[in-house]
């Protein structure tokens, strides 16, 4: 789960181009028909998020009152849940254990409008989980346990090659949201895989600690990368002061397209044809975990609906702002 970099309340005017924030979306589609073709494949982590939130300022060793919640999470799941709010039908390609937690998670994913018939269920690997602590200043600490997903490896991708969703000769030709919780070796294989050759790849690291796993996509000029300022710096092995600077450096290093967020500051969308930027709306931040995933999902949905680059960028910023302010329920 990827929070924006630097989560304090936003400052400055709303983004430059006026557009609908897309916060009022159609209800999630009926996903009971297993033959339903997904609008997007969400590949990566689907797990239980355990989030502790407190209104108190916290530091190492703090013991404060607050609220603890458990809800479906993981980068792939966060993206899937968000696109359903825009009327899209996502299918999950992931690992979920055949344990009680896994059975409950699969049921909840279906209730939230996500197709789960392509999920790899393991008898031997437990369902993954993520734990985070958020205080008054934002994210304090987090631990992601995605070891089962990493252990499953390429097994989660079988539907893309066995004829279920595609074959190497007739690959999936739609949207794919891919997250960096997969192993570096598997991500490297995906870059050159015939099963992904025709896909509209949208890629995000799971966290700054896994940002460098996306290097193969950078080198190959594949897909659209969604990173925050810290992750951009790790990919380029240099710190940046602004999102436009980071985005343009990533393009110079070979990226096909990149979107760089920077919390309350200007966000950038860069391609070889140029860079556009926008500033998030001003909101009071009440949570940060999952904000980056919400931004990515809203941007994908906006572009799929035909929005031009500038409008899609503002729609994504508006959706992320609504999320961190608590206006969008989880």
Tags for this model:
14 strands; 330 residues; 4-stranded mixed β-sheet; single chain; globular; 8-stranded mixed β-sheet; alpha/beta; UDP-N-acetylmuramoyl-L-alanine:D-glutamate ligase
Summarize the structure.
This protein has 330 residues and is α/β, with parallel strands linked by helices. The chain has nine helices and 14 strands.
Describe the protein's architecture and organization:
The chain has 330 residues and is an alpha/beta fold. The chain contains nine helices and 14 strands. It has an eight-stranded mixed beta sheet with strand order 4-1-9-10-11-12-13-14, sandwiched between helices. It has a four-stranded mixed beta sheet with strand order 3-2-7-8. Strands 5-6 form a two-stranded parallel ribbon. Helix 1 (75-84) crosses helix 8 (291-304) and helix 8 (291-304) runs antiparallel to helix 9 (309-324).
What share of residues is helical? 25-40%
Radius of gyration: 18 Å
- Tally of DSSP β-strands: 14
Question: What name does CATH use for the topology?
Answer: UDP-N-acetylmuramoyl-L-alanine:D-glutamate ligase
**Biggest β-sheet, characterized?**
8 strands, mixed
Structural class: alpha/beta
Task: Give the low-pLDDT segments.
Answer: 3-34
Could you give the order of the helices and strands? EEEHEEHEEEHEHEHEHHEEEHH
Through-space gap between termini: 14 Å
CATH architecture heading: 3-Layer(aba) Sandwich
Integer average pLDDT: 88
Q: What strand order characterises the main sheet?
A: 4-1-9-10-11-12-13-14
What is the CATH H-level superfamily? Ribokinase
CATH structural class: Alpha Beta
Whole-number tally of structural domains: 1
Beta percentage is: 15-25%
Report the total helices: 9
The gross shape turns out to be: globular
């Amino acid at each position: 789960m990827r929070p924006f970099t630097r989560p304090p309340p936003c400052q400055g005017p709303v983004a430059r181009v006026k557009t609908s924030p897309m916060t009022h979306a159609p209800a999630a589609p009926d996903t009971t028909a297993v033959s339903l073709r997904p609008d997007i494949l969400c590949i990566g982590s689907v797990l239980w998020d355990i989030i502790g939130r407190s209104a108190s300022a916290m530091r190492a060793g703090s013991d404060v009152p607050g609220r603890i919640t458990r809800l479906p999470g993981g980068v792939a799941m966060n993206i899937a849940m968000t696109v359903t709010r825009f009327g899209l039908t996502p299918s999950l390609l992931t690992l979920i254990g055949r344990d009680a937690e896994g059975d409950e998670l699969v049921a909840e994913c279906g209730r939230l409008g996500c197709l789960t018939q392509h999920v790899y269920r393991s008898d031997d690997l437990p369902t993954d989980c993520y734990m985070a602590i958020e205080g008054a200043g934002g994210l304090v600490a987090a631990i992601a346990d995605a070891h089962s997903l990493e252990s499953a490896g390429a097994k989660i991708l079988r539907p893309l090659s066995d004829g279920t969703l595609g074959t190497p000769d007739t690959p999936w030709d739609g949207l794919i949201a891919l997250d960096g919780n997969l192993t570096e070796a598997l991500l490297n294989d995906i870059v050159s895989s015939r099963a992904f050759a025709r896909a509209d790849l949208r890629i995000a690291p799971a966290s700054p600690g896994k940002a460098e796993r996306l290097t193969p996509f950078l080198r190959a000029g594949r897909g659209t990368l969604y990173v925050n300022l810290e992750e951009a710096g790790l990919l380029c092995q240099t710190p940046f002061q602004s999102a436009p600077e980071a985005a343009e450096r990533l393009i110079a290093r070979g990226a096909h397209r990149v979107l760089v967020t920077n919390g309350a500051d200007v966000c950038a969308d860069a391609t070889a044809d140029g860079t556009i930027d926008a500033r998030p709306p001003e909101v009071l931040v009440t949570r940060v975990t999952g904000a980056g995933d919400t931004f990515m999902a809203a941007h994908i949905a906006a572009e799929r609906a035909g929005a031009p680059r500038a409008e899609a960028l503002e729609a994504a910023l508006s959706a992320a702002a609504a999320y961190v302010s608590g206006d969008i329920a989880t």
